[in-house]
Amino acid sequence: MSVTNKRIGIIGGGQLGKMMILEAKRLGFHVIVLDPAADCPCSSVCDELIVASLNDGDAILALAKKVDVVTYEFEHINADALEKAELAGVPVYPSVASLKKIQNKYIQKSVLQEKGIAVPRLSEEFNADFGFPQMFKSKKGGYDGKGNWVIKQKSDIPTDVDGFFEEWVDYELEVSVIACRAINGEVVVYPIGENIHSNSILDTTIVPARIDGQIKIKAMEVANQVMNVFEGVGTFGVEMFVCKNGDVLVNEVAPRPHNSGHYTIEGCFANQFENHIRAIVGLPFGEVSLIYPTVMVNLLGVESDGKANLVGLEEAYKFTPKVNVHIYGKSESKIYRKMGHYTVVDCDLEKAISVAEKLKGIVKVVGVL
Amino acid sequence: MSVTNKRIGIIGGGQLGKMMILEAKRLGFHVIVLDPAADCPCSSVCDELIVASLNDGDAILALAKKVDVVTYEFEHINADALEKAELAGVPVYPSVASLKKIQNKYIQKSVLQEKGIAVPRLSEEFNADFGFPQMFKSKKGGYDGKGNWVIKQKSDIPTDVDGFFEEWVDYELEVSVIACRAINGEVVVYPIGENIHSNSILDTTIVPARIDGQIKIKAMEVANQVMNVFEGVGTFGVEMFVCKNGDVLVNEVAPRPHNSGHYTIEGCFANQFENHIRAIVGLPFGEVSLIYPTVMVNLLGVESDGKANLVGLEEAYKFTPKVNVHIYGKSESKIYRKMGHYTVVDCDLEKAISVAEKLKGIVKVVGVL
């Protein structure tokens, strides 16, 4: 059988899955997706969509039976069902062992700490040594700032959440590193992106990150170690804090392509989605070096919740030929919902940043009631 | 309505259509395709497939009624039906007027000649002045060398073909230029590709073409003129002969993205398919300059006709991280059938050529009986 005759199953039908499929289709793979929404972003590009909850064990097993390899675009899914698929002989990448460790943020960070990778100090119990403010994080299910609480006094601690405490990190910069690991253990690491968040959601990624070369090397080494600790297969996003003293602390690991790696579509020869697909089907990686400075900006829903309406695309394309806009195809826009993103390239990083900034006033997705 | 809510109809469901869709999907467009084969390359990525002959006027009109704009990936289609769609108010790009002139190669070249664009001498009647060999070409329906005859003596002239005669051009090099024209008349021209054919089918495109800078400028000017002569909207491929004396003669115009422009997927920020989609929905163009030297090689079916089997993909990817392989998804391979292509990039053109050449022995699509 040609490798490209393999059938790929993806759990989760959002934009990450869609961008995986656009790469998989270039090589002719057959792709089946599982998602609760019949009109999810993947629905228009996949070969088959199984409409079911991401926790529906039977549906996950049914998907696994139809394909040669299973992957996922979201980590908060039914890992026990995936384990059954794995035991039944269907490869799951990243492996269920990786996933289970990463799904629980407390275990994720404890494992990293044990392996000597620097993370913020953490504790299952309230730790007065961390002082105030400190963070309280849900062990499971959190993303985009959801499941995180800033604890300014003891009464801020939620009582109904299974979580853990973390010291407050007064970081200078947040960076993330996209890394891919192959089934045979080979690791490639993309250039470091500098992330700017707004309301705890990624707003902008600037590549190359404007940090010292030594810190870059350290961050890339950390990402490499993280991939090996979790024996991750596929593309991972590793978010890190760069502290004022030059320390690099791992903040969070995502066992899938990551929002902060969207810049690789325009910025690199082989993007994070393509290398994810290559990894899970056992193919060697494509080139990951940076072609030119690249800035990615998220298009989050603005103004009001409602039917998605993209505004200013023509103006944005008129403003510069060096921007690409990506629209995920979600029919309903919500404030802060990830509706799309755009990427600006330029040989001059400052120019790319300035153009990306100007486009923020031009192109947007509004909800129409 | 957001521009990206537009519905796009594509006549023809082959690889050119598929690559258009992969770009259209990035912006969230809804795409409906018409093709006679239910398992055509577009079938796995389009939103809807109308299975019908490319000459089926009723089906073409039915498609037009469902969409906001119609385009095509193959020029030998029912232009009269498209004209009815246009009259009914559905925009067709490139326009039917452009298409009708281009469909008939004799008219295509006569129009160019009238407008002062250099083409090989041609004649509807046998012209002894052209000497032997000369070419006889079918006015309609020819592509990839089909519909062309080399006339070495008068008895070689086919008697049952509506064709015309053309002088034999002893060219030094064949080049092609991909150009895009917007509804408002703006034209962008991609870097020139140098084409190497084998059995009258494109084998390799090398970019930048290894020709003198003055000839490049001339070829790009000619492509610009061609776009304006035909008032083409969308991406066109303009094949040209570069003669030993530096003359540039237009050999053929294709009113659609072109095989020789596949290099733009990796070689340029905005590729020929993306700019085609941008053109037909009225969006300004993305950047077309060359990022790095790029070589594209077609994967034509080899060995025998039969079930398509891709061989050597892993070896090719192991050989270099700077190759991308594209597989169109045709289940049946035939000798010389276009099954896919690959693209090699490198900062050094000679290196890219040499790597592309070595990969010819590694990756291939064979037919398995």
Task: State the separation between the terminal residues of chain A, measured CA to CA.
Answer: 50 Å
Describe the main β-sheet of chain A briefly: 9 strands, antiparallel
What percent strand of chain A? 25-35%
The helix/strand series of chain A, from N terminus to C terminus, equals: EHEEHEHHHEEEEEEEEHEEHHEEHEEEHE
Biggest chain-to-chain interface with counts: A-B, 46 and 46 residues
Shape category of chain A: globular
Radius of gyration of chain A: 20 Å
Q: What is the SS-derived class of chain A?
A: alpha+beta
Helix content of chain A: 25-40%
Number of beta-strand segments of chain A: 20
What is the average per-residue confidence, as pLDDT of chain A, rounded to a whole number? 96
Oligomer: homodimer
Characterise the protein shown here.
The structure is a homodimer of 369-residue chains. Chain A has 369 residues and is α+β, with helices and mostly antiparallel strands. The first copy, chain A, has 10 helices and 20 strands. Chain A has helices at 15-26, 57-66, 79-87, 96-103, 105-114, 213-229, 264-267, 272-280, 313-319, 349-359, and strands at residues 7-11, 30-35, 48-51, 69-72, 122-123, 134-138, 148-151, 163-166, 171-181, 187-189, 193-198, 201-207, 234-243, 248-254, 294-300, 306-311, 323-327, 332-333, 338-345, 364-368.
